[in-house]
Amino acid sequence: MSILGNIFGRIFPGAHAQQPSAPAATPPTSPGTATPSAAQPQATTPAAAANAQPTGAATTAQQVDIEQVLDGMAAKNSQKLNWRNSIVDLMKLVGMDSTLQERRELADELGYSGDKQDTAAMNMWLHKQVMKRMAENGGKVPANLMD
């Protein structure tokens, strides 16, 4: 699974469990409607959705309050993590490896075209992109986290 897919899977409920059965979960009415219907639950295929899915397609499937979920995780975490501003802290909060190598792989996955040696700029871009992708795929994300 992709790094973005791992992030989604830890934030969106049931993302891993639904992934293999996503096409069967939505009964197709015809070949023309099967693809959009199957693509609706964006949490099931976050990598594909992040790269190819039109904005708003997931909002009918399941709206997840990202702020509430992450605040809940933060309340249970012994570390004080600034997930609202830091991709490193966001990845740590959801239990992922936040090494530079992982973040560079995430940057490749999301199409970062900047200098990966400028980690501050890359990290800020990554955080905004992850928040934006969550919003595009069924997450309710505060607007200030995507600016």
UniProtKB/TrEMBL annotation:
Region (Disordered): 14-59
Domain (DUF3597) ranges: 3-142
Pfam families according to UniProt: DUF3597 (PF12200)
Segments of skewed composition (Low complexity): 14-24, 31-59
Name by which UniProt lists this protein: DUF3597 domain-containing protein
